[in-house]
Design a protein that fits this description.
Elements lengths: L7 H5 L23 H23 L17 H6 L1 H7 L2 H32 L1 H16 L5 H9 L3 H25 L3 H9 L4 H37 L8 H11 L3 H29 L9 H20 L13 H7 L2
Helix pairs in contact: 5-6, 5-8, 5-10, 5-11, 6-8, 7-8, 8-10, 9-10, 10-11, 10-12, 11-12
């Protein structure tokens, strides 16, 4: 029998070869879901490691036996022991509320200006191109460089801190709003125009409501950023002013109050985390179709809008619906003289 070369099928092996056996799963797997209890355990373990490392650097009865002197870095016990003095002597609650008031006022003003302009920039390319240079500068300018500018423009009083937060955040709010509007698919616009909606109705009743979940999520994240910015404006200030930054400023000027600075640095992320969780709950209840929630606030807002529409219909008589008329080419030819 003559020697014939093997066929491609024979050389490639059987046509229906079994897949390779799967490797056993391990506890360290890429993108594996972590149960809530295990995630809490991991986070608590991280805090315990940091606290132990802090204790190791500051252990010892005297300054000579420590790695870091108590003047530079107090021990965990020395720090938490001075919390009572921080609460009563420095009026911690009042200063925290003062910082929150400044952040809420400045950030609310940034949202009041940035959201409408961002919607317009997302709807109209010309408006976006007009504001593009300001957005590039506002998003990339160092925040610390704005402090002397706001001092020279607005003084050193309360108004300066509010305007500092406004200038530092308005570009981010406007840019994120424009991006959220741009992400809406064009098919919603085409459907609205097909149903006879005007340009104003497309913006107010289609593009803005559809982009509102993303806008609110961006505002929630930016508010935490603004709460960190306020420390820059409050640290550089005159003596006797309020705010968490004022506590840090007074502790630095007095000397020997490093514990107050460490406690404030712990309180700031805790307050920011609490506000973020509260805003996230509001976000889930306002937009349950996007972020899984019970929809309590969503239903309340819908009822208020329905009541507003009913009240408006009592004052202004609604126009009768006129379906759009479609003209064919033969109709257009007949209408010509």
């Amino acid at each position: 029998m003559p020697n014939t070369p093997p066929s491609p099928v024979d050389s490639a092996g059987p046509p229906h070869s079994s897949p390779p056996p799967l490797l056993p799963r391990r506890w360290v797997e890429i993108r594996r879901e972590v149960p809530p209890w295990r995630g809490f355990f991991y986070g608590f373990s991280c805090l315990a490691v940091c606290l132990g490392f802090w204790w190791l650097l500051t252990r010892g009865e005297t300054a000579e036996t420590r790695i870091f002197s108590p003047v530079i870095l107090p021990s965990p016990w020395e720090t938490f022991r001075d919390f009572r003095g921080l609460w009563f002597e420095e009026t911690l609650t009042r200063n925290t509320l003062a910082s929150l008031r400044r952040v809420a006022t400045g950030f609310g003003l940034a949202a009041l200006v940035g959201i409408p302009l961002g919607v317009l920039a997302g709807c109209f390319r010309g408006v976006g191109a007009f504001f593009a240079p300001l957005l590039i500068v506002g998003r990339n300018v160092p925040v610390a460089a704005l402090i002397p500018l706001t001092f020279s423009l607005f003084g050193i009083d309360e108004f300066q801190k509010v305007m500092f937060i406004f200038i530092a955040c308005v570009a981010f709010v406007m840019s994120d709003t424009a991006r959220a509007v741009n992400d809406i698919s064009d098919r919603y616009i085409d459907t609205a125009y097909t149903l006879g909606a005007s340009r104003r109705q497309v913006i107010l009743k289609v593009l803005f409501p559809l982009s509102l979940p993303s806008i609110f999520n961006s505002l929630r994240l930016l508010f935490g950023l603004a709460f960190g910015y306020i420390m820059l404006a409050e640290v550089v200030q005159v003596a006797g002013s309020s705010g968490l930054g004022g506590i840090i400023n007074r502790a630095q000027s007095r000397g020997g109050h490093q514990t107050y600075i460490l406690l404030v640095l712990m309180i700031i992320p805790l307050v920011a985390l609490g506000i973020d969780r509260m805003l996230y709950w509001i976000q889930r209840e306002l937009f349950p179709y996007r972020y899984i929630g019970s929809g309590i606030l969503h239903g309340a807002v819908r009822r208020l809008l329905y009541l507003g529409e009913d009240a408006r219909s009592l004052v202004f008589r609604p126009k009768p619906y006129a379906p759009p008329t479609w003209k064919t080419s033969s109709d257009a030819e007949k209408s010509q003289p």
